[in-house]
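User: My advisor asked me to double-check a structure prediction for Microcin C ABC transporter permease YejB before group meeting. I don't want to rely on an old file, so could you generate it fresh from this sequence?
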Amino acid sequence: MGAYILRRLLLIIPTLLGIMIINFTLVQFVPGGPIEQIIAQIEGDGDVFQGISGGGGEAGGGGGASESDYAGARGLPADFIADLEKEFGFDKPPLERFLNMMWNYMRLDFGESYFRSISVIDLVLEKMPVSITLGLWSTLIAYLVSIPLGIRKAVKDGSPFDTWTSGAIIVAYAIPGFLFAILLLVLFAGGSYWKIFPLRGLTSENFDELSMIGKVFDYFWHITLPVVASTISAFATLTLLTKNSFLDEIKKQYVMTARAKGLSESRVLYGHVFRNAMLIVIAGFPAVFIGVFFGGSVIIETIFSLDGLGRLGFEAAVARDYSVVFGTLFIFGLIGLVVGIISDLMYVVVDPRIDFEKREG
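Assistant: Sure, here is a fresh prediction for Microcin C ABC transporter permease YejB from the sequence you gave:
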């Protein structure tokens, strides 16, 4: 197993490098880099120094054009444009910028945001609690509901219970997350009906003044609607996966043998079937968490005014803040690849009979 893990760890390097190369190359063809953003602000606001901060360093993805290539730059001094290019690192060829960027990333130096006086790492850490809250609670609730429901549906396969629950989770899966989030706001956050939950934020303004119990209740009061909106679509896939896994195992010979020996149905289900049926479900927990952690958070965070990683990535892409875009891409790409290895290890923990080295051989 150690050799398999070592091979997977070594594969992270070329995989992550390929991800960065593809995205860096694509950005070279995207119009409107950070210098264009600054020029637009200058033309619109008349403030030459508005939006200019101390440095993106070598994390620039686009740019490197001459003064004549910048729309709206005709009224600006050539020296000013040159200083901007040097400040953002766009005075160098793309290959040199990419190599410098990757060298900095290898030393865990992700630079600073172009338009905020804060490092990329500090910015990510600042937004992390919101995304962890949504990802962790959404994943836990999905598992706590979907696994018992999937087992029950497998046991009652073909019954009215199985039919109407299947219809309910399919309808829930079909509802777009943003639409369900808006519905929750209208119904329960002071829209046209009840004002039960707060409209925005992760905590109240007087959070620091509350007691420990008050802080706990305030926290859960604020996250209820965002977590429900994030979780609703996860029930369908996980519930049906659990049901189908149990149905496949129930039909196998060892289950019939266990029943023939006189074992109770609960002993058969939870003593024999559960470990094999839950293999694919439990082992996929890290991947599910990362999927909820990164996927779909932009809309949910925007609707509920939560300042998390989803909004950070979206705003950085819109503003062409390439130091944040590529820094977060590298960090989260690395996390995703490591989580893939953890998922494989989870298979071994759940079922020690699995040997990836023999399967590869």
